[in-house]
Amino acid sequence: MIPSLSELRPYLLNPELSEADCIKAIRSLSAGFTVSRDKMGKYGDDADLVSAYTLLYLPTNWPKLSYILDQLKPAVRADLENANFIDFGCGPGTYSLAWSESIKTKSITLVDYSKSMLKQAEKLLTQFRPDIDVNAQTVISQAPEGKTVLFFGHSINEIGVKESLKVVNRLDPDYVFFIEPGTSEFFQSAKEFRKSMIEKGMSIAYPCPSLGACPNDWCHQVWRGTHDPELERLCQLGHIDRRTQAMTAHLYSKKEVSDSRATFVRFLTETKFSFEWESCTPGPELKKLQWQKKKFSKAEVKQMQKKSVGEKFEFEVEKELPDGILRLK
Q: Are residue 320 and residue 190 in the same domain, yes or no?
């Protein structure tokens, strides 16, 4: 369960951070991430900024990992259990905490150049997951023994693909997992990273199991939802929308992965009679798919209206229409 702001606050680096100072720090961080990132300096060395970052971004980034894990095949998710989780660029431990709540974890290795972020992550994990062996370090030269998952949470975007691949080659993990910005710019880096993983002989467990050339000019995922009232208030005061979050998420595996499902890529239209989506089907191939509303109950129609980019689904073609759209059963 995602901890509330009241539960997080006593374990911040600065638990006495006032609301006014927290809002000021959040606005500064948000502006830096979206407008002038190169001018932010070492924000991870400032206890107030780290504390404000934790209050906003830890509970709002957490659902993104849960969303991606829910899309995985049961066999893949089961195989992730009891692995050593290496959180490279861990920040305040957002994804380590989220992972430990979702997956049985043998140990967690926190890696971050910021000692303040490491201190914050250790503090939170010690409080909320005292049952897990946690190791924090600024540099990692060798993976723990046994099955490992190497995770990048917005850190490939920080250090670049070339340096990230050096980390992968050095640690040689069983799984490589990343959640990065959902921008068209980062997607070019994601495709470069994907090519390197395929060349290493790794399978793709998400979003698309095919090793063929990616047909997309931009493939990303979107989590939509709401947060608890206390967190919603913080977002409103900080003038930040965290109810809709785009991301680019990939999972690579040494084990061969088989998945015949398609992935929602782009919503096209909803008419009186149907829904149409552009979806990535095994191949990979981009296809326009149509669902007829008359085959759905009212509840199922509402479910279709809530579908989001990145969701996986089974499909069976009923008919190919003249304009190339595939009507599904």
A: no
Residue 42: which pLDDT band, with cuts at 50, 70 and 90? Answer: low
Please state, in angstroms and as integers, the Cα–Cα distance from residue 18 to each residue in 122, 176, 237, following that order: 23, 39, 13
Which domain does 322 fall in, by range?
Answer: 262-328
Please tell me the pTM assigned to this model.
0.94
DSSP per residue over 240-300, as a string?
---SEEEEEEEEEESS------EEEEEEEEE-SSEEEEEEEETTTEEEEEEEEGGGS-HHH
Is 190 found in the same domain as 300? no
Q: Are strands 312-313 and 285-292 parallel, antiparallel or unpaired?
A: unpaired
- Regarding beta strands 326-328 and 317-320, do their DSSP bridges make them parallel or antiparallel, or are they unpaired? antiparallel
Residue type, 203: S
CA neighbor of 266 nearest in space, from 179, 182, 328, 154: 182
pLDDT at residue 37 in the model? 44
Q: CA 310, CA 321: separation in Å to the nearest integer?
A: 25
191 and 268 together in one domain = no
Which among 222, 253, 284 is the end of a domain?
A: 253
Q: Which CATH number characterizes residue 142's domain?
A: 3.40.50.150
- The pLDDT of 248-254, averaged and rounded, is 98
Rounded Cα distance between 162 and 192, Å, is 9
Q: Return the pLDDT at 43.
A: 63
Neighbours of 10 (CB within 10 A): 9
* Residue 75 reports pLDDT greater than 70: yes
8 Å CB contact between 154 and 87? no
